[in-house]
Design brief:
Length: about 210
């Protein structure tokens, strides 16, 4: 403790504003004339973590790398060699929701050879406006007459294909079920899955020999 100077005055008027799916901006009032800087804490109730230290007289902080559609709480305190101030008010904000993607088409084809047959399923990925989305990773699993998982990443045309070969000729059909679609900045909304041109539900398709 430095007896020559008192601890700084607490900051006030903390506000938190979400500016994207991954960033919240903070601002506060600098009420101290003897602070060394400010500690920024994130959390809630009795569970807080210091996430940043900023210089004296700084009154803003941008917290980046956050999860979409998530609420975060913040508080700020000033510090100097004598100690820390009280905390500011607590402020919270909720990051924006990520745009969603879904399956917009499933198409199956088969190729029968002498000793086995193979099935292919082509998946189209749509955005909210049903535009085709490239670079999305589709993961799923085979069932029925086949087993195992499969994945593919949509091309510039927004589609990709998974294949299953070596299916026994005694197997009449195989089924592929989409379990997930991932792309940075988007969330997968399977409720929106549909098929633009046939009778599948956009999630599961059966390919018949
Ligand atoms: Ca100051
Ligand atoms: Ca289709």
């Amino acid at each position: 403790v430095n007896d020559d100077q008192p601890a700084p005055a607490a900051p006030g008027n903390l506000t938190a504003t979400a500016v994207s799916t991954s960033q919240i901006n903070l601002s506060w009032t600098d009420n101290a004339d003897n602070e060394s800087g400010y500690y920024v804490e994130r959390g809630a109730d009795t569970n807080w973590t210091r996430i940043a230290t900023v210089d004296a007289n700084v009154r803003t902080y941008s917290n980046t790398g956050l999860a979409a559609n998530t609420t975060y709480g913040y508080r700020v305190q000033a510090y100097n060699a004598s100690g820390v101030s009280g905390y500011s008010n607590t402020a919270s904000a909720t990051t924006a929701s990520a745009p969603t993607i879904h399956v917009g088409d499933l198409d199956g084809t088969r190729s029968v050879a002498k000793k086995s047959w193979s099935a292919s399923v082509t998946i189209a990925v749509h955005n909210t406006g049903h535009g085709l989305v490239s670079g999305a990773q589709v993961t799923g699993a085979w069932s029925g007459g086949a087993s195992g998982t499969a994945s593919c990443t949509t091309s510039r045309k927004g589609v990709c294909t998974v294949n299953k070969s070596g299916i026994l000729l005694t197997t009449g059909s195989v089924t592929f079920t989409v379990n997930g679609v991932t792309l940075a900045g988007y969330s997968y909304d399977p409720v929106q899955n549909h098929d633009v041109d046939s009778g599948t539900d956009g999630t599961t398709i059966t390919v018949t020999k």
